[in-house]
Design brief:
The complex is a heterodimer. By secondary structure, chain A is mainly α. Chain A contains 15 helices and eight strands. In chain A, the strands form four sheets. In chain A, strands 1-2 form a two-stranded antiparallel sheet. In chain A, strands 3-6 form a two-stranded antiparallel ribbon. In chain B, strands 1-2 form a two-stranded antiparallel ribbon. Classes of the chains: A mainly alpha, B mainly alpha. At the A-B interface, helix 2, helix 3, helix 11 and helix 15 of A face helix 5, helix 6, helix 7 and strand 2 of B.
């Protein structure tokens, strides 16, 4: 029986979660966006009665269906992994994290899977209007599923609306609405689903471009591009807007993540945004090396994005470790802001909180009400730093800066490129010369892998950037796991890796074949 | 009305939901039962396709019920969720595998160019039908026959080893299949679903 936490177990459990999440996110975002695009196409069909639009709708619906199944398969593994690999976490926050997950299952998932059956099998069995409603409800259901799980994720990044109960030793929900409408949850949901819309738009444009390049299904392709490009330009502008909102919330709630995203070690007032940079690999927190080998910076932009103030102070990695600065918060005037603690002090407070919990438990068991009351107050006072108590050195709060920095910049640069692509596609479509722009069609096709890359990079920023926390400031990864040996997790990791890869290959092969078959009047199914 | 209730009272409500979900699940597992009959009843390719297509319109219901079942346990009985899934690790993992391969099989089986071949996906469905039902039965049976584990919430205050629930069986859940009572319920569920499947 192992008694100490096995650190390699933590790494393997993280790797397994990352693997499953990455595969899950290859399939889900397309589902989120494509369901809406299909519903829009079907609406046009019902409005115009033109069978060409029915053909278009059915073609994209087949691709949607192929994709949907693997999204579910990887999703169920994610859900149960909380229990299998992260049992302490499940216990600690089951009350809060489990609730959205259960709602997701009960409400959205049922909605989705009921209507999806009508969508696929009901073409000649139900009326046009009813079928259209089913298509829209599938889209809404898919997006509602995403809402709940993203609310849960946002809560981990910025825990609100709960209280720690020392009697049960777990966090309990006190305000559901606060959790649902926390600024982190709102921006995360909007940013993530709009990224799914952009993925689906580029997917549709790219594949239609391939048809145009091969002079096949020209009308279908052009109409699909029209719908997708309009949907895409709106979504991508919204994506940029919500991305800005995300940066604003992260700056306040997760300053360390922001510092890692920008490779900012020494904080400054009126900090600039690095537009392009190469990090110095030998830079470590605390040493005197220059963090960048080379960089191009836009002056003051980081302060504006993070705090809506060109001269605001943006703390760097070293400032956060050493403490002693006044952090900027929305709606709190400067004189009321308090100096931050250093991480070393926070670790002290975390250890106090953990010790107080132990004392409280012992005292209540012994019936010592006075002692219990004292330790309970001490726990309450220091609970905000509870998770720090599990850390052994201040540097543990620094995430992988290289990975976070490059992922963030890749995502942003690609994001602006997508907006440009939509504009150019719409311009040539409007002039009626899109088919002649072969370079643009090839570019659209090869943008499909890029849009997936950008989206994955976004999740890397969100999840790697918040390490070592499972729940910001309250629970680090080392304290969240299950008591199983790392070899079990290692074995399941490789089984999952093999299985998912096989399924991915199968899916891509099936999709490519379906695309080559192309839209038909009867459809494949 | 729910805000003012205690956790214990809420858990009663949750228990009703979970019981309902569980009974739905047993009914809906006719899908799994049907899958195990794919070679018994489906002698020809066309017959097998008919079986799969018939079940194919219902499999999402079974699947989502299972997902919801998990989510409901997570929300309402987190201690059970944490202890059982983290403890009886291999048992749940095998069940999960059995369901993951099901999810894609319906969609992929008849599609051209599907990489693994139609037969592989049929075997996936069979494995899901057999292993999934038996093991779910075994897992449910352990609630009655018992398992060896320990829970100590004070572990949370032990900085080097904060995990509160530990499984005492080294096989992490697989030991349950050695108990004939557990296997009994597993087989009962298995045959029940086959009967429902017919």
């Amino acid at each position: 029986m192992i008694d100490q936490i096995d650190l390699s177990m933590v790494d393997w459990a993280r790797a397994q979660f990352a693997l499953t999440a990455i595969y899950h996110w290859l399939f889900v975002p397309l589902t989120l966006g494509l369901s809406f695009i299909v519903a829009i196409m079907e609406t046009i069909y019902v409005r115009t009665g033109n069978p060409e639009w029915k053909k278009i709708t059915k073609f994209w619906m087949i691709l949607f269906g192929i994709n949907f199944a693997i999204g579910i398969a990887t999703g169920i593994i994610l859900e149960f992994q909380f229990g299998t690999n992260w049992s302490n976490y499940s216990w600690f926050v089951g009350d809060i994290f489990g609730a959205p997950l259960a709602i997701e299952g009960i409400m959205a998932f049922f909605l989705e899977s009921t209507f999806i059956a009508i969508m696929f099998f009901g073409w000649n069995k139900v009326s046009k209007g009813f079928h259209l409603t089913a298509s829209w409800l599938t889209a809404i259901g898919a997006n509602l599923s995403a809402l709940w799980i993203l609310v849960a994720n946002a809560w981990m990044q910025h825990p609100v609306g709960m209280e720690f109960n020392p009697d049960t030793a777990r966090n309990e929900m006190v305000n559901f609405w606060e959790i649902l409408f926390s600024p982190m949850a709102v921006t995360k949901f909007l940013h993530t689903i709009s990224s799914g819309y952009v993925i689906a738009s580029i997917f549709v444009i790219g594949i239609s471009a391939w048809f145009l390049l091969h002079q096949r299904h020209v009308l279908t392709a052009k109409r699909s591009i029209l719908v997708a490009a309009i949907f895409g330009i709106i979504s991508s502008l919204f994506l940029a807007f919500t991305g800005d909102g995300s940066a604003f919330t992260i700056a306040q709630k997760q300053p360390m993540k922001l510092a890692a995203m920008e490779g900012l070690y020494e904080g400054e007032s009126g900090a600039g945004l690095v537009a392009f940079g190469i990090l110095n690999p030998s830079k470590k927190p605390g040493n005197n090396e220059d963090p960048f080998l080379t960089k191009i910076e836009v002056p003051q932009l980081l302060s504006i994005l993070g705090y809506r103030d060109a001269n605001a102070f943006v703390p760097g990695v070293n400032d956060i470790i050493n403490g002693g600065y006044k952090p900027w918060f929305e709606n709190i005037p400067e004189e009321e802001r308090e100096m931050t603690y250093s991480v070393a002090q926070k670790i002290e407070k975390g250890k106090l909180a953990i010790a107080a919990l132990r004392d409280y438990k012992t005292a209540s068991k012994a019936g010592d009400t006075i002692m219990a009351k004292i330790s309970r107050n001490q726990l309450k006072e220091n609970f905000a730093y509870f998770g720090y108590g599990y850390l052994n050195k201040p540097e543990s709060v620094v995430p992988n800066i290289q990975l976070t920095f490059y992922s963030f910049h890749l995502m942003v640069i690609l994001g602006f490129y997508f907006i440009l692509l939509f504009i150019v596609v719409l311009y040539f479509l409007n002039r009626g010369t899109l088919e002649k722009q072969r370079w643009l069609l090839w570019l659209s096709l090869w943008t499909i892998p890029l849009v997936y890359l950008a989206s994955q990079a976004g999740w890397v920023v969100a999840e790697v950037g918040r390490q070592p926390w499972v729940i910001q400031d309250l629970l680090p990864t080392v304290a969240a796991i299950s008591m199983i040996d790392s070899s079990s997790v290692k074995i399941t990791f490789w089984i999952f890796a093999g299985l998912f890869t096989a399924l991915l290959i199968a899916e891509v092969m099936i999709m490519v074949r379906q695309i080559k078959i192309g839209p038909r009047d009867g459809g494949q199914k | 009305m729910f805000e003012t209730m205690s956790l214990l009272a809420l858990q009663h409500y949750w228990w009703i939901i979970i019981s309902m979900l569980a009974s739905f699940l047993v009914f809906l597992m006719f899908v799994q039962g049907g899958q195990t009959l794919i070679y018994t009843l489906g002698k020809t390719k066309a017959e097998r396709t008919i079986i799969v297509n018939t079940l194919g319109r219902k499999w999402e219901f079974t699947f989502t019920t299972l997902v919801t079942f998990g989510g409901a346990f997570f929300a309402s009985f987190p201690l059970f969720y944490a202890t059982s899934f983290g403890g009886a690790y291999w048992m749940w993992m095998v069940i999960l595998f059995a369901f993951v391969i099901q999810a894609v099989s319906y969609e992929f089986r008849t599609k051209p160019n599907n990489f693994l071949g139609q037969r592989t996906f049929e075997i996936f469905l069979f494995i899901n039908g057999a292993l999934g039902t038996i093991l779910i039965g075994v897992a449910v049976s352990t609630f009655f026959t018992g398992s060896e584990f320990s829970v100590n919430k004070l572990n949370l205050t032990n900085i080097t080893s904060p995990v509160i629930s530990r499984w005492e069986g080294p096989a992490h859940g697989l030991e349950a299949v050695l108990n004939w009572r557990n296997v009994d319920l597993g087989l009962a569920i298995f045959f029940l679903t086959r009967v429902l499947g017919i």
